[in-house]
Amino acid sequence: MSTKPLRVLVLIASTRPGALGPAVGEWLIEAVGPRAEKLGVEVVPVPLGELDLPFLDEEEHPSSGVYRHEHTRRWSGLVDAADGFIVVTPEYNFGMPATLKNALDYLSAEWAWKPVGFVSYGNTSAGTRAVQHAKQVVTTLRMVPLGATVAIRIGESVQQGRLRPDGTRDAAGVALLDELTRVAHCLRPMRVRQRAETRCGPLPGSWAARLTPRDAPEVTVLQRCCWVEEALTNDTLRIPALHESPQEVSEWLASWQATGLWLDGRLLGMVRTRRVGTDLHLGRLAVVPDLRGRGLGRWLLRTAEAAVGPQCRRIVLFTGAKSLHNISLYQREGYTLGSPAGSDGVVSLAKDVVGSPVPG
Question: How far apart are CA 300 and CA 117, in angstroms?
Fold first, then answer.
């Protein structure tokens, strides 16, 4: 399971004045709050009536991802950043509200490979026919509807516009969140792979993608398991990668160009680059210990080198003076050792960029 926190949107579908939806949404968020905190899940209420989405008014098909209107771009960003959804919906004439259908129709790729649970309310059927209607739509958008649901019969559950206390219903809401959390974690590799910036990796089923501050937990774990060996080899604990907190990792992920290699939701390796003048500084090349010797480090190194800009004249990297395996790899890839190690026990290596402009 990924260590990355999940973001779940609670979509409150009804926009009718005096609707019960806001009260149901308020109950749900209160009921699952302690469990969400324990699971590390951020639960965010989103009343559809506050989005100001007119009936679909985009010229291009949603699958194009071309949005001309600001309200669509805002909605796209909100949905894209989410890992899952809980829809709070009434039943109107055996179906879901038009506002919910309209909100779903606006987007396409942003919904894919994300779980969706339902809390319905109504009279005779407790809103369950609206859920069945919605499931036909969400599966077409490649969302994954959950088996767990909460169905509220208004006549038995509502008093003066609020839900009566009900421990059984509270437990059902928590069970819904638990299932959504499990499915969201399982589907995360699918969500990552569908993004345009991913590329196939060197192992079957693996892929590479830009690392962002949200990947800080996985990067922190990778660094600590990889640089222990470096600390032992170089007889020093003065290695920043061993001590950085997730917050510190998040900060440098925001400023460096970092690439991660993934397989089934596991971060197998990484490398980062940053331009300094006419040099490309390359570092934090790491591969999980159990997969070393399979060419992953070389693949990551060459991937980073391929992104060198036209103004860069050489690539520079640093490693421990006693890290002979690392030094040997870099030398085989064309790097030359620089000056002897300083007091920190670190040596530099550099390689000229082929085709770089000659200084005037």
Answer: 39
